[in-house]
């Protein structure tokens, strides 16, 4: 396929645009490996870092994880912002939307419910408030 | 000559066939682009890859449901052990390293197949298998150790959610290993044919996606679980 033809088509997820050269392809995977390793090491290292304010550690872990997912998407799955990747990015965006709604919504609702519906600890099980019928 | 020079910078800009209206540059917005307008359907590789991409995203949505269950039930330890008491982070770091290297070598094998280098492809896939299998062994050892210590999936809601989420990822890796062996055998016996190349593309997408899910697992389950 000529370069001119490739301007007017899409690219499958996982395929790299205009990449027929194995050495150039390897470079991308190497960059991805190095960045992902750095982010992984940072995640494990910050867990016991004393110079970081403790409540900030979960936030930092989340940031490192999202950054690493981005590294995987760009360097291993070859998702780009180019016009040949529009469909792949749109599908990904929809997936991310559902994941955020599902996970964020569950955590939000259940935490709220736990806080508001926790039974008082002093209530004795021997003295039910309502008469029980068997 | 002057025409060629004038076209030179144009060729470097990636034209967008979807880019319609009066902002469109020359060569954009025409209906003859493959996959849209009158350009006819996209190639089968693009359609298969895109369909598998949508499956993977739906699989990730399923994982999100398990992650939600874990996040909600994390505190429900029923007087039993918590994650901070159970998790062996050294083991998790090893698992993470194995899966990352496996994902990298899988990508190299894909490049080798595109360059029709059979031997490098088979060697890369074999390495991918070995690192994936090492990951699974470590995970199986961890699970057996937990059950031995009385922290099996029946102990508490927290442990049920833990085994479901991490076990589901492990099942995906096991299925991936079987698929990997099938791909090695098919490339060896059937050779480099378009349908075989499409299957290897889908496999490598699957393998990379599993590594992305693992990033979420080691962060949310193991690292954040060790803080609390």
Detailed description of the structure:
The complex is a heterodimer of chains A (134) and B (228). Chain A is an all-alpha fold. Helix content of chain A is 60%, strand content 0%. Chain B has 228 residues and is mainly α. Chain B is globular and about 65 Å long. Classes of the chains: A mainly alpha (134), B mainly alpha (228). Chains A and B meet through helix 2, helix 3 and helix 4 of A and helix 2, helix 4 and helix 7 of B.
Key features of this structure:
heterodimer; A: 134 residues; mainly alpha; 4 helices; 60% helix; B: 228 residues; Four Helix Bundle (Hemerythrin (Met), subunit A); 2 domains; 0% strand; globular
Helices and strands, with pairings:
The complex is a heterodimer of chains A (about 130) and B (about 230).
Chain A: H1 3-6, H2 22-46, H3 57-76, H4 86-117
Chain B: H1 2-12, H2 44-73, H3 83-86, H4 89-114, H5 118-148, H6 157-190, H7 194-227
Helix pairs in contact in B: 2-6, 2-7, 4-5, 4-7, 5-6, 6-7
Secondary-structure element order of chain B, N to C = HHHHHHH
The helix content of chain B, as a percent range, equals: over 70%
Q: Quick one: how many beta strands of chain B?
A: 0
Kindly provide the radius of gyration of chain B, computed on alpha-carbon positions and rounded to a whole number of angstroms. Answer: 23 Å
Q: Can you count the beta strands of chain A?
A: 0
Q: Proportion of β residues of chain A? A: under 5%
Task: Give a brief description.
The complex is a heterodimer of chains A (134) and B (228). Helix content of chain A is 60%, strand content 0%. Chain A has helices at residues 3-6, 22-46, 57-76, 86-117.
């Amino acid at each position: 396929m000529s370069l001119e033809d490739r301007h007017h088509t899409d690219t499958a997820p996982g395929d790299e645009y205009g990449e027929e050269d194995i050495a150039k392809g390897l470079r991308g995977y190497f960059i991805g490996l190095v960045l992902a390793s750095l982010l992984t090491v940072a995640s494990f290292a910050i867990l016991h870092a004393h110079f970081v304010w403790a409540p900030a550690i979960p936030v930092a872990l989340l940031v490192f994880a999202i950054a690493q997912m981005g590294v995987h998407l760009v360097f291993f799955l070859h998702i780009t912002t180019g016009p040949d990747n529009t469909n792949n990015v749109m599908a990904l965006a929809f997936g991310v939307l559902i994941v955020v709604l599902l996970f964020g919504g569950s955590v939000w609702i259940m935490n709220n419910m736990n806080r508001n519906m926790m039974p008082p600890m002093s209530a004795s099980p021997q003295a039910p408030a309502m008469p029980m019928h068997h | 000559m002057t025409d060629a020079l004038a076209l030179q910078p144009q060729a470097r800009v990636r034209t967008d066939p979807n880019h319609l209206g009066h902002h469109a540059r020359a060569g954009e917005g025409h209906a003859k682009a493959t996959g849209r307008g009158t350009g006819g359907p996209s190639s089968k590789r693009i359609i298969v890859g895109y369909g598998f991409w949508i499956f993977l995203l739906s699989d990730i949505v399923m994982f999100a449901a398990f992650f939600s269950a874990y996040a909600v039930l994390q505190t429900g330890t029923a007087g039993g052990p918590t994650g901070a008491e159970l998790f062996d982070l050294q083991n998790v770091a090893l698992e993470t390293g194995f899966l990352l290297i496996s994902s990298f070598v899988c990508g190299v094998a894909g490049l080798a197949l595109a360059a029709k280098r059979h031997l490098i492809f088979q060697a890369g896939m074999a390495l991918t298998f070995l690192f994936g299998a090492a990951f699974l062994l470590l995970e199986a050892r961890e699970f057996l150790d937990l059950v031995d210590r009385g922290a099996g999936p029946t102990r508490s809601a927290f442990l049920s959610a833990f085994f479901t989420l991490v076990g589901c990822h492990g099942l995906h890796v096991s299925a991936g290993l079987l698929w990997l062996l099938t791909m090695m055998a098919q490339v060896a016996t059937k050779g480099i044919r378009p349908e075989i190349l499409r299957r290897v593309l889908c496999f490598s997408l699957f393998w990379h996606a599993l590594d992305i899910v693992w990033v979420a697992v080691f962060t949310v389950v193991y690292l954040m679980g060790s803080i609390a």
